[in-house]
Write a structure and sequence with these properties.
single chain, Uracil-DNA Glycosylase, subunit E, 4-stranded parallel β-sheet, 3-stranded antiparallel β-sheet, globular
Length: 170
Amino acid sequence: MPRVRSFRPIEDGKAEILILGSMPGRASLAARQYYAHPRNAFWRIACELLRLDPASSYEARVRALRSARIALWDVLHSCTREGSLDARIENGVANDFRTFFRTHGNITHVFFNGAKAEATFRRHVLPRIGGRSLSYRRLPSTSPANASLSPARKLRAWRAILAPVTKEVS
């Protein structure tokens, strides 16, 4: 099976929220963009929450995340996987979260884009990052493979990412 590698994080030093996926799928890897599959709901949800035109360029969407103090990354740096499904991930190697959290001290909330991202983080990362107090929450996967929830229900669940920002601003 081919070994695939994730992207560098979308981040800056002001980030307070970290959203984690597991590993980019084929469409994302080919486009070199997070959540590039046209049926993945991530960018539609993010645009709705950040009040951004869904037709905005990838670069504008990335700027909007940074402006909202949201970082985006994947739990895995690399893995072997045939196809795009999380269930096919094998031989995963985690990203360097110890360094990431040390250089992003404002992050207080970590949200997982689906169960695989959460399980992989809890298995490969959490035991290695020490006692940093962070809030963790799994959100429904935005993947087209997660058809059990309607887009409206996914959007309602994903509104949680705005709560930490709203508390700070209020």
